[in-house]
Amino acid sequence: MRPVTDRDSAEWWERVARHEFAVQECDSCGTLRFPARAYCHRCRTRRWHWRPIAPAGRVESWIVSHQPFLAGVTEPYVVVMVRLADAPECVMYGNWDWPEPPVAGGPVRAVFAVVDEELSLINWRPAE
Ligand SMILES: [Zn+2]
C-alpha cells in the first residue's frame, strides 16, 4: 500500500524520496509546521518555504498494532510518534525500526526506508 498524496503533501513525499528531511516554515511569522498545509495555522499567511531540519527527535508515544492493516507488514509492528528536535511543535509518525521497544522520551533519529525510486518512508531508530 502506497501513501496517498494530495496537493499539500505531494512535494513533501518527493523530498522524502530524495532523502530530504524538511518541514514548512511560514514566511510571515516563522512558525514551523508538519504535516504540510496550504496556510499557516497561526497567522493564516499562505506564503511559506521548505526548511531542512535535523532528522531527529524524541519518542512522544507509540502503539503496537496487532492488526494486519498493511500488506507485506508482519504484525505485531510498532508505530512511534516523534516530537521533532528542531520543530518542537511538530510530531511525525513512522514505523519503529529497531529490535528493542521504544523508550518514552528517548532520543531517536530518522532513517529512510527505500521502497522504490519514487517512494521512501521515514522510519525511526534510537539515536546513537
Ligand atoms: Zn505564520
UniProtKB/TrEMBL annotation:
Source taxon at top rank: Bacteria
Listed Pfam families: OB_ChsH2_C (PF01796), zf-ChsH2 (PF12172)
InterPro entries: ChsH2_C, ChsH2_Znr, NA-bd_OB-fold, Thioester_dehydratase-like
Residues covered by the ChsH2 C-terminal OB-fold domain: 50-112
Domain annotation ChsH2 rubredoxin-like zinc ribbon: ranges: 13-47
Gene3D superfamilies according to UniProt: 6.10.30.10
Protein name: OB-fold protein
Species whose genome carries this gene: Streptosporangium brasiliense
